[in-house]
Specification:
- By secondary structure, the protein is of the alpha+beta class.
- It folds into three domains: about 5-85, Arc Repressor Mutant, subunit A (Orthogonal Bundle), CATH 1.10.10; about 90-160 and about 270-295, D-Maltodextrin-Binding Protein, domain 2 (3-Layer(aba) Sandwich), CATH 3.40.190.10; about 165-265, D-Maltodextrin-Binding Protein, domain 2 (3-Layer(aba) Sandwich), CATH 3.40.190.10.
- It has nine helices and 14 strands.
- The protein has helices at about 5-15, 20-25, 30-45, 60-85, 100-115, 170-175, 225-230, 240-250, 280-295; strands at about 50, 55-60, 90-100, 120-125, 140-145, 155-160, 165, 190, 200-205, 210-220, 240, 255, 260-265, 265-275.
- The longest helix has 24 residues, at about 60-85.
Length: about 300
Amino acid sequence: MDRLSRIPIFVAVARHGSFAEAARRLGMTGSAVSKQVQRLENDLGARLFHRTTRQLSLTDEGSFLFERSAPLVEGIEEVGEMLAGRKVKPEGSLRISAPVALAQRVLKEPLTSFIMKNTGIHLHVELSDRFVDLVGEGFDLAIRIGHLEDSSLVARRLADVPMVLVGAPILLAEYGTPQIPDDLSNMPFVHYGSDRNAQRLKLQKGLEEPLQIVTQARLSTNNDQMMVSFARAGQGLILLPRFMVESELQNERLREVLPDYQLIPERKLYAVFPHSRHLPLKTRVLIDFLVEELA
């Protein structure tokens, strides 16, 4: 087997994060897959994987090779699918990452419906509030709220995410209900995902000029449910997607503050995936499905 023939084996291992899983999908033994990857490493004079007893991850050289070779392998696979008459039916393993609260409140029903309609896809959904390394950790797709920072990734907008500023009645009774953004400067906040005491908040009312406010926090956390718990106890105002606090608003455990203002820039829900000229059919079908379901 020559170097070019070993590239698809390497790509399969990188995709699945496992020699055993790659071997199963390639119809090879695990030892044969491992041997071919080792020979490829010898050919290239570079180590492609970090190997431990519990984890397999790409080295910098491995990530470099994967980013450039995976699209070519995918293109060959796509041609093979077309020739085999499988193009109309998405098949294969699909690994996606999503935040915990987003999956529980927004994604679980659409994903359940998707997998019932696409029985040829083996779906793995990993829930985590951290930003996973799509290439390094072998994910096909991530669902994220916010902005795209990694230029090696591609994002497709799935839906708008209305943000809402809320506080507990006990807090608003103590400090007064803010009438204008400047009133927020005198109120405590619970910040998300940062241990900084001060954060900047930009709000806009209609077509008026946006106003930037510096908010002060004694508490911060990277978990939305902890934020809600702190807020319900009157420890500060919180800013979260509306879907995360809808039940709290309906039950009046929390109240919306400055409802006529919106956060700038607006938050969006994105499907994020590695840059590829040939996006796999299974990934494309899932993205199209989510766009339709979440619109």
